[in-house]
Each structure stands twice: as structure tokens, then as C-alpha cells.
Write a structure and sequence with these properties.
Blueprint: E1 2-9, H1 15-26, E2 31-38, E3 47-53, H2 56-63, H3 66-77, E4 81-89
Antiparallel strand pairs: 1-3, 1-4, 2-3
Length: 100
């Protein structure tokens, strides 16, 4: 499992563009789960996407994909700021989530 995290400060974006970005992201090969979170504290970053992949290789392929690069470029053109992207991988000592 690998986790791709993207954060940004929001800008007005048409719903059709948001839906296109969501469809493109969720269709990435190796996608396990995908969600968008909003920061209720009204601090930066305002929005976060958590995109779980089945492997680090799948996350790296998404990060290097022309689709992801085009979405990031379009987001900047539409005024999104403070864009940050990270990839996190599991460690052998903790390969999965713990249950309470």
C-alpha cells in the first residue's frame, strides 16, 4: 500500500472541472481508495486528497503520469495555490492499519 497526498488552497473551479479531475484520479491504475477532505479550521492547506494505491510502483506511475501533470498545471492556471504532493509507503513493522 502507498498513499499519494495532494493538498492545496482552494480557488473557484467549475464543478465540471472538479468532476473531471476526480474521474481521472480515481481511474488511475492501482487505485484502492480515493477521498477529498476539507480543512474545517480555515487554515492552509484548505483541501486534501488522499489517494491510496495498491503499491508504491502504482503511486509512482501516477505521480509520473501526464494526466496528473496536466491536472496540476490546470489547477495552477485556475488559481489554486500552495499545491503540495507527497507519496508515503508502508514500513515492514506496520504493513497495515491497526484496529482499535
Amino acid at each position: 500500500m502507498a498513499l499519494y497526498i495532494s493538498t492545496w488552497d482552494s480557488s473557484p473551479v467549475e464543478e465540471a472541472v472538479r468532476q473531471r479531475w476526480a474521474r481521472t484520479s480515481r481511474a488511475a491504475p492501482g487505485t484502492v481508495s480515493w477521498r477529498v477532505l476539507h480543512n474545517p479550521l480555515q487554515t492552509t492547506p484548505q483541501t486534501m486528497v488522499l489517494h491510496e494505491f495498491e503499491s508504491l510502483e502504482a503511486a509512482q506511475q501516477w505521480l509520473a503520469s501526464p494526466e496528473r501533470a496536466a491536472m496540476t498545471a490546470e489547477a495552477r492556471q485556475l488559481g489554486r495555490t500552495s499545491i503540495s504532493q507527497q507519496v508515503w509507503n508502508t514500513i515492514p513493522a506496520q504493513p497495515g492499519p491497526l484496529q482499535p
